[in-house]
Amino acid sequence: MAAYDAVVAGAGPSGSTAARLLAERGASVLLLDRQRFPRDKPCGGGVTLRAAAVPDVDLSPVIERTIYGARFSLRLGESFDRTYAKPLTYMTQRCRLDAYLAEQAAAAGACFHDGESVHSVQANGRAGIQTPPPARPEAIEGPSGKTTPSFPGTSRTPVTVRTSHGIYNARVLIGADGANGVIARASGLSPHFEEAVALEGNVPFTADIPEDWREYVGIDLGGLAGGYGWVFPKGEHLNAGVGAWKYAAFTLRPKLTDLCRRYGFDASRLENLRGHHLPLRTARSPIARGPIALVGDAAGLIDPLSGEGIHMAFASGRLAADNAMRYLAGDSENMAGYQRAVDAKLQPELDISRRLQELFHFAPPPYLALMRHSEKFWLFFCHLIRGELTYLDFVRMIGPLRLALAFFAAVAQRKREARVTALLPLVRGA
Ligand SMILES: Cc1cc2nc3c(=O)[nH]c(=O)nc-3n(C[C@H](O)[C@H](O)[C@H](O)COP(=O)(O)OP(=O)(O)OC[C@H]3O[C@@H](n4cnc5c(N)ncnc54)[C@H](O)[C@@H]3O)c2cc1C
Fold first, then answer.
1. Whole-model pTM?
2. 365 and 335: one domain?
3. 22 lines ligand 1 (CB under 6 A)
4. Do 112 and 182 fall into the same domain?
5. pLDDT classification of 394: cutoffs 50, 70, 90
């Protein structure tokens, strides 16, 4: 049975970041993904400047466009454009970004096995779930091809990871297997999530699409329960999508058609139409147990207001690698330090974002008016996206008004939940 210091399940941005950092610091790492790479993932592929700053990797080889401006509209009504002097967001495609990040992890020394699915996990003698195995593809080894632990002196009970193709021992297991991952359940962790969903597709650039759509992202606000519609320009196509709370999933398809119609794209030309979950972690929900830690979407670390997940995927992958190194070196008893780090450094941002989301969706027009007419508001938004300010800075800036923010956000949430409870039987009966 091959043994590694760390097995990372899932080679999205969170898993590849954790695997690369661990390998760079001398750990033997096995990075697994159930899909063959390059693989696509339902995603707008927008990487904000704040996200791009986290992984210490030059993303330029996979950036198709750099965006300086946004075209806003309210419920598909009149639109207005705002621009900023510096870049706000990079546009990529996940098939390119994720393959590139996995290559970086392999170049740092991680063994990358794509097409290999984790089926069960056994830690401290407790078995996890089982799923049926698919066929065996090729493995891609990192340059070191290490299959022995680099920290053999540490007396840690290994985790046994059973995959479609083998059995591995790992001192640390990082669950980076996304919104529908198996590691959380297999390892006895049951994080609590609120559920959002999103649907997206691609419209090829053709002569009838106005040239300036290559410069702006389109954001339509206020028309979806808890979410928004977007148009993101890529090298050869526009990515159009819509996101909302899960209970409003049935609205996504017609809303996407309306979004395309409003901006003059033919919805029947949408290609690769795909939907996926966006799990939103509730505060203090468990994401680490013994030598196992969940990162990225597997831990529900998505910004509720923007639906942005790549930023937190990078950030949590980094925190998991830091804490795994401490654990492997014998400086900590388990991965609980990772959860503490997430709770201290990432979760406060997500909690404020969640409150702002409730407030914003209670009455979107005033916020959109601010975005249009207030230079200060727009600049704050730009600084936030660029990572120069945080949601916590916003709360500090508003001072005592933060109490009002918390109060009105709670009221807005209660009103929304009451509305949903009243409407759900009608929706189900329809
Ligand atoms: C429609 C949509 C649009 C979005 N747009 C944006 C955007 O523009 N910008 C942004 O920042 N965020 C966006 N997000 C969120 C973003 O896609 C996620 O937050 C991000 O992908 C999380 O990265 P991850 O590494 O945690 O998980 P993922 O990227 O989901 O990667 C998980 C990996 O685990 C693998 N896996 C699953 N199960 C197993 C198993 N049993 N064994 C081995 N491997 C397994 C999967 O194949 C996958 O490769 C969007 C989400 C959706 C649904």
1. 0.93
2. no
3. no
4. yes
5. very high
